[in-house]
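User: Sequence in, structure out. Go.
Assistant: Echoing your sequence, followed by the structure tokens.
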Amino acid sequence: MYGARVSAVVAVALLAGLGCSSAPRTVRAASLRPHKERKKAPDFALKDANGQTVHLSDYRGKVVLLDFWATWCGPCKVEIPWFQEFERQNKDKGFAVLGVAMDDDGWDAVKPFAQERGINYRLVLGNDAVGDQYGVDAMPTTLLIDRDGNIASIHVGLTGKSEFEDGIQELLQAPSDPSAPALFVRAK
């Protein structure tokens, strides 16, 4: 199953000194990509805890923090409270956190974990196909997606809280279509 494959990759990466560590670091995309270099985020259809189908495309027009995680992942447990805070602070500003749980035990593992930690953002259950679509080979893998559905940054492993905050704020302030004329100009 997917978790076993990811566990093996993480184990090899740890032996190589590249795996998840407690020190914040970014393996890829230390900052937001320029808009013209961003690629569309692949759409998916995954089920949430209530059995509702969730499509990433449902979030178009919002800035999305898309987090691939697992209940057994130590660095994921560090980042989750940050993501809860980001959701509280920015949900009314066109922002959403969407967690994709990659646990082999599915909702049997994820539901109690989420309830115990009071996770306040939507969770869906991932699968091999979605993990492969996004190139997920380590936990956590977190993407910031702009309002147009483009991948603005990818973070593999534990990333510093301020890096996420800075990226979220920059994306929230950016217009949806950078080629469109600004509707408002700030007075100097």
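User: And one key feature?
Assistant: Helices lie at 2-15, 74-90, 107-117, 128-133, 161-173.
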